[in-house]
Amino acid sequence: MTDRTGLLERGELVVERRLVAASNTTLLCRIAGPDGNARCVYKPAAGERPLWDFPDGTLAAREYAAYLVSEAAGWQLVPPTVLRDGPYGFGMCQLWVDQSGEELVDIVPRDAVRDGWLAALHAVDGDGKPVTLVHADDPRLRRLALFDIVINNADRKAGHILVDSRGTLLGVDHGVSFHAEDKLRTVLWGWAGAALSDDERGLLLHLLTETEGALGSRLAELLAAEELRAMRERISRLVGHGRLPAIEDRPRPIPWPVF
Questions:
Q1: Residues 109 and 234 in one domain
Q2: What is the DSSP letter of 228?
Q3: 3 state SS of 171
């Protein structure tokens, strides 16, 4: 995906419609300017629904912080994202992703995990039948799972995982991330407890260094000091432990609804 941040920052926003499935005000827009034109998602901070565990009016900044972390790590897992003024005030603006339709998360009957897929969680459906939440054993997803651990993503639903027409996997909706307390909730538990690869460990060490420099300075403008400190501690623990977190003893390991 090409970098379209200039267009997102300077283009004129024209609202097409509201995406009513979203819990916060989310608007599909056309954006046009000297840098071209595109579609984007605009989430005004004024339309954020208050949450008991996240400070009011901070979700747009958290979405932008997630983009900065993804870029600094070289993951490029978040569509180009900026903070800017719009028709309904200051908020987050993110490039729209045209999806390929590739599905990477599913719910199947218990013990019916297909080759090339991993079991994330065993559960019981609404009819009392045993089922398993599964996802593809895909390096793109594993990269996203590691990213979610770093940013402490409390809402990695299957519907927040997109694949574009080029096969690029992207994650969206990171407004409830970066909390100082452990709130990781995700559908990507298939690698729970797995050892980090040398490449993953090296990347985390690089990211930790970045948080002490320019990236840290930018994040300090978006997150509370204890949230930034907690992210650094998460990265350090990951590297020290050498494994992805386990799912055991987590009272709420997955978001709801799953999709």
A1: yes
A2: H
A3: strand
